[in-house]
Amino acid sequence: MSQQHRSSPAVLDHRTLARDHRRLAEILRPGLSVLDVGCGSGSITRGVAEAVQPTGTALGMDRDADHIARAVERFAGQPGLSFVCGDVLALTAEDHFDVVTAARALQWVPRVDEALARMVRAAKPGGAVVVLDYSHERLRWSPEPPASMARFYAAFLAWRAALGMDNLLGETLAGRFEACGLRDIRVTNQDEIARRGDPGFDGAVDLWLHVIHSCGPAMIAAGALTEAERDEAERDYQAFCRGAAERQHVVLRAVEGTRP
Ligand SMILES: C[S@@+](CC[C@H](N)C(=O)[O-])C[C@H]1O[C@@H](n2cnc3c(N)ncnc32)[C@H](O)[C@@H]1O
């Protein structure tokens, strides 16, 4: 089974280092070299490059060639910033970066321990690995979403699990870091709680409409969902977002460790 979907540029283009990878933003300082695994269209990586100027560098890597082309087009010429197309499961860099990071990317990697081991090897001894990721099983809406959306979400979790992806990754990361030999492991709660009336509420709840669009076709192809179920979930959830939805709590953890 292969994963056939693409994260939406409509979401990725608006991310920022300061808002969407907060723990990394606290750690960065001028002069560091940083690898950003699963950089998407490069928005956070651009912020990383700015934070490590004037002498530092940021390299964004993504397995999706279209995202990398978009990142290059958006940010060509920015000092210290470059992008490369590649899969973290084929990463061969050794002892190279001061910081190796991945935000919301390892959630999509089936062999997450292998990916993490490669990221650790890419860091210099004494360098840091910083991973930000979800525990999708813990997502809560208030009030409960429509039944069709609850069905979609259960199917989403089951589809991901069948592909070998970790639906509690935010919580299992610290143990995975320990198993990789990382030291000084620290977990920071980066949960995103959106309440109706907050400026970012629509964008936060709409994330799942993008997920229905981006993952729906692959889920249908895998037999995890019918087209009719997808369409019903999309219609009902859209109405929920514009009407009854009051609160969304997304569980996210930033986990960091030092390579000995
Ligand atoms: C949800 S996006 C996150 C993008 C960005 N880091 C952010 O936080 O906005 C996940 C990204 O990880 C990339 N990705 C997934 N699996 C990957 C892999 N095995 N190797 C490299 N990139 C991968 C996807 O192509 C996608 O661009």
Describe this protein's structure.
The chain contains 10 helices and 10 strands. With 260 residues, the protein is α/β, with parallel strands linked by helices. The protein has a single domain, classed as 3-Layer(aba) Sandwich (Rossmann fold), CATH 3.40.50. Strands 3-2-1-4-5-10-7 form a 7-stranded mixed β-sheet, sandwiched between helices. Helix 7 crosses helix 10 and helix 9 packs antiparallel against helix 10. The longest helix has 21 residues. The radius of gyration is 18 Å and the shape is globular. The chain starts with 8 loop residues before the first helix and ends with a strand. The mean pLDDT is 96. The site of S-adenosylmethionine (SAM) has 21 residues, from loops.
List descriptors:
260 residues, alpha/beta, Rossmann fold, seven-stranded mixed sheet, three-stranded antiparallel sheet, 10 helices, 23% strand, binds S-adenosylmethionine
Lay out the secondary structure.
Layout: H1 9-12, H2 17-20, H3 22-27, E1 33-37, H4 43-52, E2 57-62, H5 65-75, E3 81-85, E4 97-103, H6 112-122, E5 123-134, E6 140-142, H7 147-162, H8 169-179, E7 183-189, E8 192-195, H9 201-221, H10 227-242, E9 247-250, E10 252-258
Helix pairs in contact: 7-10, 9-10
Bound molecules: S-adenosylmethionine.
Summarize, please.
The protein is an alpha/beta fold and 260 residues long. The chain has helices at 9-12, 17-20, 22-27, 43-52, 65-75, 112-122, 147-162, 169-179, 201-221, 227-242; strands at 33-37, 57-62, 81-85, 97-103, 123-134, 140-142, 183-189, 192-195, 247-250, 252-258.
Find the structural class using helix and strand composition. alpha/beta
Number of strands: 10
Beta-strand percent range: 15-25%
In the CATH hierarchy, the third-tier topology is known as: Rossmann fold
Radius of gyration: 18 Å
Bound molecules: S-adenosylmethionine
What kind of sheet is the major sheet?
A: 7 strands, mixed
Order of helices and strands: HHHEHEHEEHEEHHEEHHEE
Can you give the mean pLDDT? 96
